Structure formats: structure tokens, C-alpha cells
Amino acid sequence: MAALVAEQQCSPSQTVGPQTRLAEDLHMDSLEMQGLLLTIEECYGVVPKEDQLADITNVADLHAATLRWIANAGRSS
């Protein structure tokens, strides 16, 4: 997930880790976050809802949320 975020933000991958904060450290705004979510949708086939994004502050949160979205998508199939 860190590599995906780094690529999306055009940051060196070694500077993005699990505790990297999306807004504070990478200066991601809402439009960039939407772009990242589109990339996650393309890569993993999951589409998060807006209300599922409130608690995502860093790369580790995004990774855990993506795993939940994948698991939930598998259950609804």
C-alpha cells in the first residue's frame, strides 16, 4: 500500500511508510484522495463509500481499510 500511495503522490517510495499521514505528511487534498481511491478500485476491485473514509489518516489505516473492503466484497458476492 505504501508503494501505491508513493506512486500516486509521485513521492520516493522509501519516504512513504505505514505511519505516513496522508494529509499532514503528503499534503493530500480531497481530490488526490479520490484519485487514490480510484486507483485502489482499479487494483483491487473495491469501491469504498464516503462514510468509510473518515477514520483513515495514514497509510496503515488505508491498508487496513482496503483489506476490510476486499473481505466485505468477497462476502457480498
What structural keywords apply?
3 helices, mainly alpha, 77 residues, single chain, Non-ribosomal Peptide Synthetase Peptidyl Carrier Protein, Chain A, globular, 0% strand
**Helix amount:** 40-55%
Q: Provide the succession of SSEs.
A: HHH
Assign an overall shape: globular
**% residues in beta strands:** under 5%
Ranges where pLDDT stays below 50 over 5 or more residues in a row are none
Instruction: State the secondary-structure class.
Output: mainly alpha
**Radius of gyration over all CA atoms, rounded:** 12 Å
Number of strands: 0
Q: At the third CATH level, what is the topology name?
A: Non-ribosomal Peptide Synthetase Peptidyl Carrier Protein, Chain A
> What's the total helix number?
3
CATH superfamily: ACP-like
Count the domains.
1
Instruction: Using the 3D structure, state the CATH architecture.
Output: Orthogonal Bundle
C-alpha end-to-end distance: 24 Å
**The first-level CATH class name:** Mainly Alpha
Classify the oligomer.
single chain
The average pLDDT is 87
Main β sheet profile: none
Describe the structure.
This protein has 77 residues and is mostly helical. The protein has one domain: ACP-like (Non-ribosomal Peptide Synthetase Peptidyl Carrier Protein, Chain A). Helix content is 52%, strand content 0%. α1 (2-9) crosses α2. The protein is globular, with a radius of gyration of 12 Å.
